Automatic annotation (TrEMBL):
<dbReference type="InterPro" id="IPR001460">
    <property type="entry name" value="PCN-bd_Tpept"/>
</dbReference>
<dbReference type="InterPro" id="IPR036138">
    <property type="entry name" value="PBP_dimer_sf"/>
</dbReference>
<feature type="transmembrane region" description="Helical">
    <location>
        <begin position="16"/>
        <end position="36"/>
    </location>
</feature>
<keyword id="KW-1133">Transmembrane helix</keyword>
<feature type="domain" description="Penicillin-binding protein dimerisation">
    <location>
        <begin position="68"/>
        <end position="238"/>
    </location>
</feature>
<dbReference type="InterPro" id="IPR050515">
    <property type="entry name" value="Beta-lactam/transpept"/>
</dbReference>
<dbReference type="Pfam" id="PF03717">
    <property type="entry name" value="PBP_dimer"/>
</dbReference>
<dbReference type="InterPro" id="IPR012338">
    <property type="entry name" value="Beta-lactam/transpept-like"/>
</dbReference>
<comment type="similarity">
    <text>Belongs to the transpeptidase family.</text>
</comment>
<feature type="domain" description="Penicillin-binding protein transpeptidase">
    <location>
        <begin position="280"/>
        <end position="591"/>
    </location>
</feature>
<keyword id="KW-0131">Cell cycle</keyword>
<dbReference type="GO" id="GO:0071555">
    <property type="term" value="P:cell wall organization"/>
</dbReference>
<keyword id="KW-0812">Transmembrane</keyword>
<keyword id="KW-0472">Membrane</keyword>
<dbReference type="InterPro" id="IPR005311">
    <property type="entry name" value="PBP_dimer"/>
</dbReference>
<keyword id="KW-0132">Cell division</keyword>
<dbReference type="GO" id="GO:0005886">
    <property type="term" value="C:plasma membrane"/>
</dbReference>
Amino acid sequence: MEGQTRRLKSLKSRRMWLVSIVLIIGFSALLWRLYWIQLGSVRSFSHEEMDLIARAEEQQSRVVVVDSGRGSILDRQGQALTGKKGWRLFASPFSQAQIEANRVKLGKLASQLGWTEKQLVHQLQSLDTPGSLSRPDGSELVLKEREAKAIRDLHIPGIDALESDDRWRDRGGRQVIGRVERNPFLIQRRFPDEWEQGLYDSHSRIGVSGLEAAFEPFLRADGSTLLTYTTDGQGRSLNGLEMKVEGSSVGEPYRLLTTLDQRIQSVAERALNDAAVQEGAVVVQDIASGDLLAMASRPLENDPQHDWNAWDNRALMETTPGSIFKTVVAIAALDTGKVKPSDQFHCNGHLGRYGLRDSKPDGHGTQTLEQAYANSCNIAFAQVAEKVGGKTIEEYANRLGLGSRILWSGKVWKEKNFRQLPQEQRGLIFSDEMTRRDQGAVAQTGIGQRDVRVTPLQAANMVTALFHDGKALNPRIVQEIQQRDGETLFTFQPHALAVEKRIKPETLQALRKMMQTTVSDGTAQSLKDSAVSMGAKTGTAQVGQSNERFNKWMIGFAPTDQPRYAVSVVIRSVEDSKDNRSHRVFRQVMEQVVQGEARD
């Protein structure tokens, strides 16, 4: 009996050992599998695939770019449009408990900055992620080196003074300057050779829109300074900052000297803000050189409901022009002699054979071409378009720079057709030959409807052409690529569209006079009492599937005695056909640009 009991105990003991060994082996295998998933298998992916470890780390650790290392983008005066390197104050979001724990030090910091403690605390608690602080009025805060040292000596957790170019701060013109993001797939597609050479890696950032994208090979960073911070499971920032430098040294990047004027750009941005424009654009052009001085676009925020991308530059995007296109029709009519200045046209408010109606239901009566232009009479200009014909209208539109991409393009070293802003759209006059011959389509084209599409850039450039023998210039937005020390590396020489025939001087003079008459006696009389004398043309275009919305335009030049600026304004897809905000924006821009010259 005792022998049997010992055998049972021995068997039970062996089973327990066996189970233990199996469990140990199984647990070890599980650990090995987890290790392989987390480390081994991920690293076995090809170079082109997403690194799962990096993605997991990014979910817990986030990055703020303190210093981009990219080349500067300057305005025509040499002022930085992308941020000048200097000392800036960076901070993490602060909870109330963190505020209380550091109350004394935060009071000292507020005193050093010349702020109230309440102003500092408000900014710290308003942050969603770590970033640079602004002054209480929203302007950029740049510290002196001694101020930065004094702040660092306070040793406040989550706050530091760092050397930064603060490139991502919105200083206006964001759609022109463009966006930079971390995108290894785009890098490999655009720059496969540089990727293989190690000039880029999976952590590199690349320009994806605007000048940042077009001039990426010249602006490419030689190493970024990053601020890393840790988040909790809900993505909220945890207090604590760590600095690191990332990226390989590829030599100093170049810098761009643009044609933009920071003051004038601010004027355009402010005018759109003051008018609460949701979607639209302003372009300001120097008439003498054709250079672009400002290009402002709205919206500033993405809106999925309207399919709006805030990074799309509305100044380069085509849309229906409405009555500003009558400028082309008037030039074509006068220059070909098919219509004389003294010819008269009768408007009774409708043109039955084409179903056209005028904005004035009872009509404008009998008018000359100049009066019809000033009154923006649809019926008269439909008749003018019939006389001129679709082929001639399109020919003159093309000569004035419509229907094609007009921004500077040409050979830049090895690239034969470099474009300063490749996102520019072409526009359109007629969609096909049949439409060009159809009299009803031609009549609708004569008032800027049907197939006609124009960009705000083209509209401003068309005004500038009135002062260059009718030649459409190829506007520059970048003058030079420079070494970091300012030495010129490449100059973009000004040039114009090649045309065989020039527009007659008397035609251009007549058109300029028509634009002044539009201000004194026509649809732009809202500008009449301005201290700055202007010539202008208004436009209202029906858009939308049922023509239930409207584009509101105004284009023109100033001052009339010595024209120096051409401006185009469009406010897109508004509900009210009588919305006059384009008038207000145009006037505000023109007045502040011209009057501001004396202060420059």
